[in-house]
Design a protein that fits this description.
This protein is α/β, with parallel strands linked by helices. The chain is built from 11 helices and 7 strands. α5 runs parallel beside α8 and α9 runs antiparallel to α11. The longest helix is centred in the last third of the chain and has 33 residues.
Protein backbone atom coordinates (compact mmCIF):
# COMPACT_ATOMS: atom_id res chain seq x y z
CA UNK A 1 0.00 0.00 0.00
CA UNK A 2 1.32 3.44 -0.91
CA UNK A 3 2.44 5.55 2.06
CA UNK A 4 2.76 9.31 1.84
CA UNK A 5 6.33 10.37 2.50
CA UNK A 6 6.79 12.79 5.39
CA UNK A 7 10.49 13.49 4.99
CA UNK A 8 13.01 13.27 2.16
CA UNK A 9 16.71 13.18 2.99
CA UNK A 10 19.23 14.21 0.32
CA UNK A 11 22.87 13.27 0.93
CA UNK A 12 25.54 14.32 -1.63
CA UNK A 13 28.67 12.19 -1.33
CA UNK A 14 32.10 11.68 -2.82
CA UNK A 15 34.23 8.70 -1.81
CA UNK A 16 32.48 7.99 1.49
CA UNK A 17 32.48 4.19 1.43
CA UNK A 18 33.44 3.92 5.11
CA UNK A 19 30.73 6.16 6.52
CA UNK A 20 27.73 5.10 4.39
CA UNK A 21 26.53 2.02 6.37
CA UNK A 22 26.63 3.86 9.70
CA UNK A 23 25.08 6.98 8.14
CA UNK A 24 22.08 5.09 6.75
CA UNK A 25 21.57 3.16 9.99
CA UNK A 26 21.58 6.32 12.10
CA UNK A 27 19.21 8.12 9.71
CA UNK A 28 16.81 5.17 9.89
CA UNK A 29 16.93 5.04 13.69
CA UNK A 30 16.49 8.81 14.04
CA UNK A 31 13.49 9.18 11.71
CA UNK A 32 11.81 5.88 12.56
CA UNK A 33 11.90 6.65 16.28
CA UNK A 34 10.23 9.98 15.48
CA UNK A 35 7.53 8.05 13.57
CA UNK A 36 8.35 9.78 10.30
CA UNK A 37 7.95 8.00 6.96
CA UNK A 38 11.05 8.87 4.98
CA UNK A 39 12.98 8.35 1.78
CA UNK A 40 16.76 8.63 1.59
CA UNK A 41 18.42 9.80 -1.64
CA UNK A 42 22.17 9.17 -1.84
CA UNK A 43 23.72 11.21 -4.68
CA UNK A 44 27.07 9.74 -5.70
CA UNK A 45 29.02 12.64 -7.17
CA UNK A 46 31.45 10.57 -9.25
CA UNK A 47 33.06 8.51 -6.47
CA UNK A 48 36.11 6.45 -7.41
CA UNK A 49 35.91 4.08 -4.44
CA UNK A 50 33.24 1.44 -3.73
CA UNK A 51 30.60 3.95 -2.58
CA UNK A 52 28.15 3.02 -5.35
CA UNK A 53 28.45 -0.70 -4.66
CA UNK A 54 27.61 -0.03 -1.02
CA UNK A 55 24.65 2.16 -2.04
CA UNK A 56 23.28 -0.68 -4.19
CA UNK A 57 23.66 -3.10 -1.32
CA UNK A 58 22.01 -0.77 1.20
CA UNK A 59 19.14 -0.11 -1.21
CA UNK A 60 18.49 -3.82 -1.63
CA UNK A 61 18.24 -4.15 2.15
CA UNK A 62 16.10 -1.06 2.69
CA UNK A 63 13.74 0.06 -0.12
CA UNK A 64 13.56 3.56 1.38
CA UNK A 65 17.16 4.09 0.29
CA UNK A 66 17.54 5.33 -3.28
CA UNK A 67 20.64 6.23 -5.26
CA UNK A 68 21.67 8.45 -8.14
CA UNK A 69 25.14 8.13 -9.64
CA UNK A 70 26.90 10.80 -11.72
CA UNK A 71 29.25 9.75 -14.51
CA UNK A 72 31.86 12.14 -13.13
CA UNK A 73 32.33 14.65 -10.34
CA UNK A 74 30.08 17.70 -10.91
CA UNK A 75 30.12 19.20 -7.43
CA UNK A 76 27.87 19.47 -4.41
CA UNK A 77 25.48 21.99 -5.97
CA UNK A 78 24.74 19.68 -8.90
CA UNK A 79 24.13 16.76 -6.53
CA UNK A 80 21.69 18.80 -4.45
CA UNK A 81 19.89 20.09 -7.56
CA UNK A 82 19.32 16.58 -8.91
CA UNK A 83 18.26 15.36 -5.48
CA UNK A 84 15.78 18.22 -5.08
CA UNK A 85 14.20 17.31 -8.41
CA UNK A 86 13.58 13.74 -7.23
CA UNK A 87 12.26 14.28 -3.68
CA UNK A 88 8.63 13.74 -2.67
CA UNK A 89 8.52 14.40 1.09
CA UNK A 90 6.72 17.39 2.61
CA UNK A 91 9.95 18.32 4.41
CA UNK A 92 13.38 17.96 2.77
CA UNK A 93 16.52 17.45 4.83
CA UNK A 94 20.13 17.69 3.68
CA UNK A 95 23.38 16.70 5.36
CA UNK A 96 26.94 15.82 4.47
CA UNK A 97 27.87 12.15 4.28
CA UNK A 98 30.94 12.32 6.52
CA UNK A 99 28.90 12.04 9.77
CA UNK A 100 30.05 15.45 10.97
CA UNK A 101 26.38 16.37 10.52
CA UNK A 102 24.50 14.27 13.07
CA UNK A 103 21.32 12.53 11.78
CA UNK A 104 19.97 12.70 15.33
CA UNK A 105 19.28 16.42 14.68
CA UNK A 106 16.74 15.60 11.93
CA UNK A 107 13.51 15.19 13.98
CA UNK A 108 13.95 18.54 15.73
CA UNK A 109 14.66 20.30 12.44
CA UNK A 110 11.47 18.81 11.00
CA UNK A 111 9.58 20.21 13.99
CA UNK A 112 11.04 23.67 13.30
CA UNK A 113 9.54 23.56 9.81
CA UNK A 114 6.19 22.11 10.85
CA UNK A 115 5.52 23.99 14.10
CA UNK A 116 7.12 27.38 13.48
CA UNK A 117 5.93 27.81 9.89
CA UNK A 118 9.44 28.34 8.55
CA UNK A 119 10.45 27.88 4.93
CA UNK A 120 14.03 26.91 5.69
CA UNK A 121 16.04 26.01 8.78
CA UNK A 122 19.83 26.14 8.65
CA UNK A 123 22.14 24.48 11.13
CA UNK A 124 24.66 26.52 13.08
CA UNK A 125 27.80 24.72 14.19
CA UNK A 126 28.78 26.93 17.12
CA UNK A 127 31.72 24.73 18.01
CA UNK A 128 33.63 23.38 15.03
CA UNK A 129 36.34 20.74 14.75
CA UNK A 130 37.89 22.19 11.59
CA UNK A 131 41.37 23.77 11.45
CA UNK A 132 41.79 27.55 11.77
CA UNK A 133 42.68 27.72 8.06
CA UNK A 134 39.06 26.77 7.38
CA UNK A 135 37.12 28.29 10.28
CA UNK A 136 38.56 31.83 10.02
CA UNK A 137 37.75 32.37 6.31
CA UNK A 138 34.33 30.78 6.93
CA UNK A 139 33.56 33.38 9.60
CA UNK A 140 34.60 36.18 7.25
CA UNK A 141 32.38 34.84 4.45
CA UNK A 142 29.44 34.40 6.80
CA UNK A 143 29.81 38.01 7.95
CA UNK A 144 30.02 39.23 4.33
CA UNK A 145 26.98 37.17 3.33
CA UNK A 146 24.93 38.54 6.23
CA UNK A 147 25.86 42.07 5.13
CA UNK A 148 25.04 41.51 1.45
CA UNK A 149 21.88 39.43 1.89
CA UNK A 150 20.33 40.82 5.06
CA UNK A 151 19.78 37.24 6.31
CA UNK A 152 20.82 36.84 9.95
CA UNK A 153 22.43 33.39 9.85
CA UNK A 154 25.71 32.48 11.49
CA UNK A 155 26.57 29.51 9.24
CA UNK A 156 25.32 29.73 5.66
CA UNK A 157 27.40 26.79 4.45
CA UNK A 158 26.29 24.26 7.06
CA UNK A 159 25.25 21.11 5.20
CA UNK A 160 22.55 20.34 7.76
CA UNK A 161 19.39 22.09 6.57
CA UNK A 162 15.63 21.54 6.41
CA UNK A 163 13.24 22.92 3.77
CA UNK A 164 9.59 22.89 2.92
CA UNK A 165 9.07 20.94 -0.30
CA UNK A 166 7.88 24.07 -2.12
CA UNK A 167 11.25 25.74 -1.52
CA UNK A 168 13.43 23.08 -3.15
CA UNK A 169 11.01 22.75 -6.07
CA UNK A 170 11.15 26.51 -6.71
CA UNK A 171 14.89 27.23 -6.58
CA UNK A 172 17.74 26.24 -8.85
CA UNK A 173 21.12 25.40 -7.33
CA UNK A 174 23.99 25.62 -9.82
CA UNK A 175 27.74 26.18 -10.03
CA UNK A 176 28.93 26.31 -6.43
CA UNK A 177 25.85 28.13 -5.12
CA UNK A 178 25.10 25.48 -2.49
CA UNK A 179 26.84 27.83 -0.05
CA UNK A 180 24.15 30.43 -0.61
CA UNK A 181 20.91 28.43 -0.76
CA UNK A 182 19.30 30.68 1.91
CA UNK A 183 20.11 33.71 -0.28
CA UNK A 184 18.62 32.00 -3.34
CA UNK A 185 15.53 31.02 -1.37
CA UNK A 186 15.03 34.59 -0.15
CA UNK A 187 15.36 35.88 -3.72
CA UNK A 188 12.45 33.56 -4.66
CA UNK A 189 10.24 34.98 -1.91
CA UNK A 190 10.90 32.45 0.87
CA UNK A 191 11.81 34.83 3.68
CA UNK A 192 10.90 32.76 6.75
CA UNK A 193 14.41 31.51 7.41
CA UNK A 194 15.44 30.20 10.82
CA UNK A 195 18.48 28.76 12.49
CA UNK A 196 19.16 25.90 14.89
CA UNK A 197 22.32 25.26 16.86
CA UNK A 198 23.65 21.80 15.95
CA UNK A 199 26.54 19.68 17.13
CA UNK A 200 29.52 19.45 14.79
CA UNK A 201 30.94 15.97 15.27
CA UNK A 202 34.58 15.17 14.70
CA UNK A 203 35.33 13.46 11.39
CA UNK A 204 35.24 9.71 11.94
CA UNK A 205 36.27 8.41 8.51
CA UNK A 206 38.39 9.69 5.64
CA UNK A 207 39.63 13.21 5.10
CA UNK A 208 38.06 16.56 4.31
CA UNK A 209 37.58 17.33 0.61
CA UNK A 210 36.91 21.06 0.65
CA UNK A 211 40.08 22.92 1.57
CA UNK A 212 42.32 25.39 -0.26
CA UNK A 213 42.37 29.08 -1.15
CA UNK A 214 40.45 28.48 -4.39
CA UNK A 215 37.37 27.48 -2.39
CA UNK A 216 37.23 30.82 -0.61
CA UNK A 217 37.98 32.92 -3.69
CA UNK A 218 35.21 31.14 -5.59
CA UNK A 219 32.92 31.58 -2.61
CA UNK A 220 33.36 35.35 -2.62
CA UNK A 221 32.82 35.56 -6.38
CA UNK A 222 29.69 33.41 -6.06
CA UNK A 223 28.38 35.78 -3.38
CA UNK A 224 28.78 38.77 -5.70
CA UNK A 225 27.16 36.83 -8.53
CA UNK A 226 24.11 35.67 -6.58
CA UNK A 227 23.63 39.14 -5.05
CA UNK A 228 23.68 40.76 -8.49
CA UNK A 229 21.42 38.16 -10.11
CA UNK A 230 18.87 38.16 -7.30
CA UNK A 231 18.51 41.96 -7.42
CA UNK A 232 18.91 42.79 -11.09
CA UNK A 233 18.06 39.63 -13.06
CA UNK A 234 14.90 41.16 -14.54
CA UNK A 235 16.06 44.80 -14.53
CA UNK A 236 19.78 44.94 -15.45
CA UNK A 237 19.46 48.51 -16.77
CA UNK A 238 18.77 49.69 -13.22
CA UNK A 239 22.27 48.57 -12.25
CA UNK A 240 24.29 49.45 -15.34
CA UNK A 241 22.26 52.58 -16.02
CA UNK A 242 22.83 53.95 -12.52
CA UNK A 243 26.58 53.42 -12.75
CA UNK A 244 26.66 54.86 -16.28
CA UNK A 245 24.69 57.94 -15.23
CA UNK A 246 26.99 58.68 -12.30
CA UNK A 247 30.16 58.20 -14.37
CA UNK A 248 28.83 60.26 -17.30
CA UNK A 249 27.62 63.14 -15.11
CA UNK A 250 30.85 63.30 -13.11
CA UNK A 251 32.96 63.25 -16.28
CA UNK A 252 30.70 65.79 -18.00
CA UNK A 253 30.71 68.16 -15.03
CA UNK A 254 34.52 68.09 -14.72
CA UNK A 255 34.91 68.68 -18.47
CA UNK A 256 32.47 71.61 -18.34
CA UNK A 257 34.31 73.09 -15.35
CA UNK A 258 37.71 72.87 -17.04
CA UNK A 259 36.31 74.47 -20.20
CA UNK A 260 34.61 77.26 -18.22
CA UNK A 261 37.81 77.83 -16.23
CA UNK A 262 39.79 78.19 -19.47
CA UNK A 263 37.20 80.66 -20.85
CA UNK A 264 37.19 82.69 -17.64
CA UNK A 265 40.97 82.90 -17.40
CA UNK A 266 41.25 83.84 -21.08
CA UNK A 267 39.04 86.89 -20.50
CA UNK A 268 39.58 87.90 -16.88
CA UNK A 269 42.46 85.91 -15.43
CA UNK A 270 46.21 86.03 -15.03
CA UNK A 271 47.99 85.94 -18.43
CA UNK A 272 50.45 83.37 -17.10
CA UNK A 273 47.60 80.93 -16.38
CA UNK A 274 46.02 81.42 -19.80
CA UNK A 275 48.90 79.56 -21.42
CA UNK A 276 47.89 76.34 -19.67
CA UNK A 277 45.80 74.29 -22.07
CA UNK A 278 42.82 72.21 -20.89
CA UNK A 279 44.39 69.08 -22.34
CA UNK A 280 47.55 69.67 -20.28
CA UNK A 281 45.65 68.85 -17.08
CA UNK A 282 45.47 65.19 -15.91
CA UNK A 283 41.97 65.88 -14.60
CA UNK A 284 40.76 66.35 -18.17
CA UNK A 285 41.75 62.81 -19.14
CA UNK A 286 40.19 61.39 -15.97
CA UNK A 287 36.94 63.17 -16.89
CA UNK A 288 37.13 61.91 -20.47
CA UNK A 289 37.66 58.36 -19.23
CA UNK A 290 34.64 58.69 -16.89
CA UNK A 291 32.44 59.80 -19.83
CA UNK A 292 33.59 56.84 -21.93
CA UNK A 293 32.99 54.41 -19.06
CA UNK A 294 29.54 55.92 -18.53
CA UNK A 295 28.62 55.34 -22.18
CA UNK A 296 29.93 51.78 -21.98
CA UNK A 297 27.81 51.05 -18.90
CA UNK A 298 24.75 52.38 -20.73
CA UNK A 299 25.47 50.11 -23.69
CA UNK A 300 25.98 47.14 -21.36
CA UNK A 301 22.64 47.90 -19.72
CA UNK A 302 20.80 48.12 -23.06
CA UNK A 303 22.34 44.84 -24.25
CA UNK A 304 21.44 43.14 -20.96
CA UNK A 305 17.86 44.41 -21.30
CA UNK A 306 17.63 43.01 -24.85
CA UNK A 307 18.92 39.66 -23.66
CA UNK A 308 16.46 39.69 -20.74
CA UNK A 309 13.54 40.52 -23.05
CA UNK A 310 14.36 37.51 -25.23
CA UNK A 311 14.74 35.14 -22.28
CA UNK A 312 12.04 32.42 -22.16
CA UNK A 313 11.86 32.97 -18.39
CA UNK A 314 11.48 36.77 -18.48
CA UNK A 315 7.99 36.46 -16.92
CA UNK A 316 8.78 33.53 -14.66
CA UNK A 317 7.34 34.74 -11.35
CA UNK A 318 6.71 32.66 -8.24
CA UNK A 319 2.97 32.53 -7.44
CA UNK A 320 2.29 31.49 -3.87
CA UNK A 321 -1.49 31.08 -3.84
CA UNK A 322 -4.57 31.85 -5.93
CA UNK A 323 -8.30 32.13 -5.23
CA UNK A 324 -10.87 31.37 -7.94
CA UNK A 325 -8.22 31.68 -10.65
CA UNK A 326 -7.63 29.21 -13.46
CA UNK A 327 -4.96 29.50 -16.13
CA UNK A 328 -5.54 28.33 -19.66
CA UNK A 329 -2.55 27.25 -21.70
CA UNK A 330 -2.42 27.79 -25.45
Amino acid sequence: MFQKIDVSVVIPLLNEEESLPELCERIDQSLTSAKLIYELLLIDDGSTDSSWTIIEQLSSENPRIKGIRFRRNYGKAAALHIGFQAVQGKVVLTADADLQDRPEEFPEMVEYIQNQGLDLVSGWKKKRYDPVSKTLPTKLFNAATRKFSGIELHDFNCGLKAYRLEVVKSIEVYGEMHRYIPVIAKAHGFKKIGEKVVIHAERKYGEGKYFGAERFINGFLDLLSITFVSRFKKKPMHFFGALGTVAFLVGGFVTFWLTFEKFYLSNFGDPDQIRREVTDQPLFFIALTAIIIGVQFFLAGFLAELISLNSPKRNDYQIRQTVNISYETT
